[in-house]
Amino acid sequence: MKGVYPLKSARIHPIARQLAHYCQQLAKAGLSPGCTGEASIRDGDLIWVTPGGINLAEVQAEHLALVWPNDAKEGRVVADAELTPPTNFAWHRAFYAARSELRAVFKVRPTHTMAWASLHRIDGETSEAEPPGFQQSVLLMPRQASHMSMETAAHHHANLIAMADVGIFSLGVSLAEAFNALEELEACARQAAISVTRQAGQPVHI
């Protein structure tokens, strides 16, 4: 089957290596503290995905799981990996299933974006907002997301979704697009935090 590779092939497979590279870039940019990050890329009918409970700074191509997404709730691993798919893999599956143009999904918890989203989220409601200077709308989802929330997010036009109890999802037609959007969003959220602090007459330590 196209896209099914043994573990040893993951070390040299270009898609696996590309995803591992962007995982390391997410960590280097400070967008994924600790073991909170997840990343995936679509490869035909299959999905390369980072394992759960790993720091993205440490991800290598051989750590990645190759998953057939249509078997059972969490998909079926069709190439060996050291660990199982991440906690929120169901969200990755939902985004790919709903939007055929998507090829990359990141889930991270960047500090300033999470703080900004918390300040602008409306309790119990789904809404849209964007930090000053940012050119895309961010879909702000309420706490305790349900299956209906997943369906809403998956079929929404936004490529950035802020889940109160999960993190920030960035979707793209490429890994570069998803990464660049996150990096720009975090920069704008940081600048917004600086502006608010200055307006309040407080020292800036950001």
Main sheet attributes: strand count, strand direction, barrel closure: 9 strands, mixed
Strand content: 15-25%
Q: Report the end-to-end length measured between terminal Cα atoms.
A: 49 Å
Secondary structure category: alpha+beta
Question: How is this fold's topology laid out?
Answer:
Blueprint: H1 7-10, H2 14-28, E1 38-43, E2 46-49, E3 65-68, E4 76-79, H3 89-98, E5 104-108, H4 111-120, E6 127-129, E7 138-141, H5 147-155, E8 160-163, E9 167-172, H6 175-199
Parallel strand pairs: 7-8
Antiparallel strand pairs: 1-2, 1-5, 2-3, 3-4, 5-9, 6-7, 8-9
Helix pairs in contact: 2-6, 3-5, 4-6
List keywords for this structure.
206 residues, disordered N terminus, 6 helices, alpha+beta, 9 strands, nine-stranded mixed sheet
Q: Describe it for me?
A:
With about 210 residues, the chain is of the alpha+beta class. About 35% of the residues lie in helices and about 20% in strands. The chain has a nine-stranded mixed β-sheet with strand order 4-3-2-1-5-9-8-7-6, sandwiched between helices. Helix 3 (about 90-100) packs across helix 5. The radius of gyration is 17 Å and the shape is globular. It starts with 6 loop residues before the first helix and ends in a 7-residue tail after the last helix. Mean pLDDT is about 85; it is low at about 1-5.
